Amino acid sequence: MSHHGKPLPVPDIDSAPYWESCRQHRLIIQRCTDCGHSRFPPTGMCPHCRSVNFEWITASGRGRLYSWIVVRHPVPREIYANDVPYVVALVDLEEGVRISTNMICPPDALMGDMPVEVFFDDVSPDLTLPKFRPVR
Amino acid sequence: MWTLRDKYAITGIGYTHYSNNSGTTVLNLALEACRNALADAGIDAAEVDGVVSYHFNDSVPSIAVATGLGLPEARYAVEFSSGGNAANLIVQTAAAAIEAGLAKNVLCFRAMNGRSGFRLGGGRELSSRGITQYTAPFGWITYPQAIAMWCRRHMIKYGTTSEQLGRIAVEFRANAARNERAIMRQPMTLADHQASRIIVDPFHLFDICLESDGACAVLMTSAARAKDLRRKPIYIMGAAYGGGPNQGDDLFDAIRWPDHTQNFTSYIAKDLWGSAGVGPADVDVAEIYDCFTYTVIMGLEGLGFCPQGEGGRFVESGGIAFDGKLPVNTHGGLLSEAYIHGFNHVIEAVEQLRGTAGPRQVPDAEIAVTTGGAMTCGSALVLRN
């Protein structure tokens, strides 16, 4: 699936380490060093204790499929016409955060709460996306 | 909790023709709806000193409407940059402004060329900065795609089916057949719903609301002022706005929302009913925000019309039938009447309670509920005549 013409993340001060880590095929998650709460997406403040102190931890890459959609009608058409049908999913990682991603799996094989694992798709010279597939 | 039970009333309503192409500007639509509301109320424009609206960068500021109507002094002309979550919030805000002495008589409106102009459902600007950097690169972009994700979780957890969603679409289309304002009136069967194209699984085309051109307006006054106006006042009994934790970085973002089988309605129900002093069993007619069939399921469950998780079975067994105990979206809703961002639900609720709904009339309707919003935040009213 070419990423040509598709949205590219615009990294900011919170997300730059995350996207850089994806380039290195590592999924990292912020964890507050004051209360231990993990969070995603990356932000500057812990919503549990409002600390600004955090560390990055390497996620196991394993999780469960919380929900998914199968996009069949491409929007915008000119960008996604060759990609449909494709699956967008919400995955609950073992670390206790939820992430949005693509599931690479035949839609008929998807089941709620199924175990899934991350892999890294170098979709362009500048972008690696974390995607998920069923645990084999 | 709303503390203004029965102190404020909707005393005028106005709306334009609803269509796929209004042929005019959003400002003209707004002015027409507002002027109709003033005429309906029998109030002079000189007495109106407030205008409240909401929009998604697809409308005109309230000061433009105040200027176009020639209001001599607009003391409170404001708007929310917001989605359907604000549909009832603007009514609440108008009442709060009058209560606070910031204005005396306030027009609330929503106007849009939502089909011929900026189409909310057609995708968003392809931004991937801020929160959308985590969603747009994966091709997760449109509102149908957003809420289809919520719906799947309900299907996983409770076994809700596409056919049950289809019952909602079919019921509302049948209601629209009685509604001369409705854009979509041709009959729909469940088979039609199931045969309609799958846009984003689990949503078929007929699970997704219209995009429309048009405008709706209401006049809010104190109950005392209402007594001298033309129409039977429709009182705001109860009201609530809000949602749960983690409402997101924008109206699409629900990554941190705890449970996609429930939306804001489950969080505001207690305050809504508490402020009104009545409960779900007292409601004669409900106009529930239906940008998608699934949002009706969440609204029915969240407000307590049926138990959590039972929405699919509730509609399947005729729970929202027009001739049943709880007629819902008697005008056909956003799915079949028109998409005026939920403000057309307020118009319909008022007509039901005035007894002027003609072939759509729910006999002896005394108490109505309206909801606005689909996901993490939203608003609701309990109205009475």
Describe the 3D structure:
The complex is a heterodimer of chains A (about 140) and B (about 375). In chain A, the strands form 2 sheets. Chain A has a 5-stranded antiparallel sheet with strand order 6-5-4-7-8, with helices on one face. Chain A has a 3-stranded antiparallel sheet with strand order 2-1-3, with helices on one face. Chain A has one domain (about 15-135). The model of chain A has no long low-confidence stretch (mean pLDDT about 95). Chain A has about 140 residues and is mainly beta. In chain A, about 10% of the residues lie in helices and about 40% in strands. Chain A has 2 helices and 8 strands, in the order αββββαββββ. Chain B has about 375 residues and is an alpha/beta fold. Chain B has a domain at about 10-120 and about 210-225: Peroxisomal Thiolase, Chain A, domain 1 (3-Layer(aba) Sandwich). Helices cover about 30% and strands about 20% of the residues of chain B. Chain B has 12 helices and 11 strands. In chain B, strands 3-2-4-7-1-8-11-10-9 form a 9-stranded mixed sheet. In chain B, strands 5-6 form a two-stranded antiparallel sheet. In chain B, α1 crosses α2 (about 60-70), α5 packs across α9 and α8 packs across α9 (about 295-300). Chain B is globular and about 55 Å long. β4 (about 60-70) of chain A pairs antiparallel with β5 (about 200) of chain B, so a sheet runs across the interface.
